[in-house]
Design brief:
The complex is a heterodimer of chains A (270) and B (266). Helix content of chain A is 71%, strand content 1%. Chain A is mainly alpha-helical and 270 residues long. Chain A has one domain. Chain A has a two-stranded antiparallel sheet with strand order 1-2. In chain A, a hairpin with a 2-residue loop joins strand 1 and strand 2. In chain A, helix 3 packs antiparallel against helix 4, helix 4 runs antiparallel to helix 10 and helix 9 packs parallel to helix 13. Chain A is globular. By secondary structure, chain B is mainly α. Chain B has one domain. In chain B, helix 2 crosses helix 6, helix 3 crosses helix 11 and helix 4 runs parallel beside helix 7. Classes of the chains: A mainly alpha (270), B mainly alpha (266). Chains A and B meet through helix 3, strand 1 and helix 10 of A and helix 2 and helix 9 of B.
């Protein structure tokens, strides 16, 4: 254990170096910060535009749907900030950076994450959290201690869940170097899926995304529990608390996929 | 001249036909997003009492699935070839060629679009046909107008990408313009929701004063037969004007860049 803690200063140095280099061009960094909010602002604005045409979406009025939007945006944007750049694993493999990382006496995954941490995405994460706060304050939630706990627990589990999806889909490229866009279907696709009530979707598509992959427990079920609404699809109220039970297996799958992937990796040979 | 253009187009087609796995991965992802967007827009129509902003559910389904197919044909995102060549100085060899750089890149891009039409357009559209009730064009005039509209959309989108990339002549780092383009183009072109969902005082100026709706919204409105054929032709005429303006702008920007260009190492 002491050995493991001994490497922390090394990680800290990586993070500090990365932060310093990114902030050194101040104007450029500020423009990046502002520009990056754009993506999440458009996602939220899209939902508001849709509610111009209809009073309810999948049976939920705007104030209630915004709780799901907030949970999804806060969780996704924070996960994207922390580990989103791992989707560049293909480039790391292609340019040989991964080889350099593997020969160092530090974990490969934390190194890659810290060496390429996109600090400019911090603005997006803050905006996501702001949307969540505004949504839960205006949705008329009947606050109990349990719900206060849930409004913190759910986004945290959502971050862990999305981070696991990022790592798992990135690990795909250890086997399939051109898999790039397939990952987006589950990372950005997962974000889009969790933004809307699960009742919007139907059939096998809903079953796969919401229950098999577990995206339903990131925003939809926690939101139901916060709002005190029964699930039109018939799951009991405690489903809102199932987020950790979904996040934990997701982490295990991601860790397994990453480890097996790194073992499988045979460099480019040059 | 025509033979040179055709040869470059052919090479663009062949270049992209070598990226088979990436093509497969891209088609899969477009299809997944088709499911996501289609379900959401159909829920909007249900909530709005059946018809949303003049679109029936069948028309919305066609709008989404043809849109997912066209996304890769017009190539909204992910093209930075020119910016990379400007940054590295390779663009110098483009300037030595007897073909104007804009024409050269346009020809190659049309070849790329042709390949995408075969491989990236068809899978999402077939998925839409299999899993949803979609509106099929009923008038004989719609397919030819749609075909012209798609070609113009490719030219306009190419021109916009060229202009965004060309900022590298002045900026050296195109991440800023590229980011604005990536975030703005999807919404403003009508990819996330049909632009008619917005109030008219936003939609009409957007349509006439910016090229964005001409990139996706116009061909999609044509294929779902939202309007009668004279209006369809009018929308395509707006596209034609934008295609001309954008290509002229590309030529002007390229000319201005060449006057100030100092290529590294020579």
């Amino acid at each position: 254990m002491a050995d493991r803690l001994g490497v922390l200063p090394a990680y800290w140095a990586l993070l500090r170096g990365q932060a310093r280099s990114q902030v050194s061009y101040r104007t450029s960094f500020l423009v990046d910060l502002v520009g990056n909010v754009g993506a999440t602002v458009f996602d939220v604005a899209t939902v508001l535009v849709l509610f111009r045409l209809t009073r309810t979406l999948g049976g939920f009025p705007r104030a209630e749907a915004m709780v799901m939007v907030g949970l999804s945006a806060a969780a996704f944007a924070t996960a994207d900030l922390a580990v989103g750049n791992i989707e560049r694993l293909r480039q790391y493999v292609r340019t040989g950076l991964l080889d350099a990382v593997l020969v160092r006496p530090l974990g490969a995954l934390p190194q890659l994450l810290l060496m390429d941490l996109p600090l400019r995405k911090a603005s997006r994460a803050l905006f996501g959290v702001a949307v969540l706060v505004a949504a839960v304050l205006t949705a008329g939630i009947d606050w109990t201690p349990a719900r206060v706990g849930l409004v913190v627990l759910a986004p945290v589990c959502g971050v862990v869940f999305f981070a696991s999806i990022f790592v798992t889909t990135a690990a795909l490229s250890f086997w399939w170097i051109d898999s790039g866009e397939v990952g987006s279907a589950f990372t950005y696709g997962g974000r889009d899926f969790t933004t809307y009530p699960v009742t919007v979707y139907s059939g096998w598509f809903r079953a796969v995304f919401a229950y098999v992959l577990g995206f339903g427990f990131v925003a939809y079920y926690p939101a139901l529990a916060l709002l005190g609404r029964a699930d039109p699809l018939g799951l009991p109220v405690w489903a809102g608390w199932a987020a950790p039970a979904v996040a934990l297996p997701a982490v295990l799958v991601a860790a397994l996929a990453w480890r097996v992937g790194v073992r499988h990796y045979r460099s480019t040979g040059s | 001249m025509f033979r040179t253009f055709a040869a470059i187009t052919g090479s663009g087609f062949r270049r992209y036909s070598t990226y088979r796995q990436a093509t497969l991965a891209g088609a899969f992802t477009n299809t997944v997003f088709g499911f996501l967007r289609c379900h959401v827009l159909l829920a909007v129509a249900t909530g709005a009492g059946g018809v949303a902003a003049g679109y029936t559910p069948d028309q919305l389904a066609t709008f989404v699935w043809v849109g997912q197919g066209l996304l890769a044909v017009v190539l909204l995102w992910g093209w930075n070839d020119l910016a990379e060549r400007i940054r590295t100085g390779d663009v110098a060899s483009d300037l030595l060629r007897p073909v104007h750089p804009v024409l050269n890149y346009l020809a190659a891009d049309l070849g790329r679009a042709g390949y995408a039409l075969l491989t990236r357009f068809v899978p999402p559209v077939v998925a839409g046909l299999l899993f949803f009730d979609v509106a099929i064009p009923s008038r004989w005039s719609t397919p030819p107008i749609f075909a012209i509209s798609v070609v113009l959309a490719v030219v306009i989108c190419f021109g916009c990408r060229y202009l965004v990339n060309a900022t590298a002549y002045w900026l050296h780092d195109v991440r800023g313009p590229m980011m604005i383009w990536t975030f703005g183009s999807g919404v403003l072109a009508g990819l996330y929701f049909p632009l008619h969902f917005l109030p008219d005082w936003v939609t009409v100026p957007l349509w006439l004063a910016t090229p964005f709706p001409s990139i996706l919204q116009t061909p999609l409105d044509v294929v779902v037969e939202r309007d009668d054929w004279p209006v369809q032709v009018g929308l395509v005429a707006v596209q034609a004007v934008w295609a001309g303006l954008i290509l002229l702008a590309c030529r002007a920007v390229q000319g201005a860049a060449e006057r100030r260009l100092v290529v590294q190492g020579g």
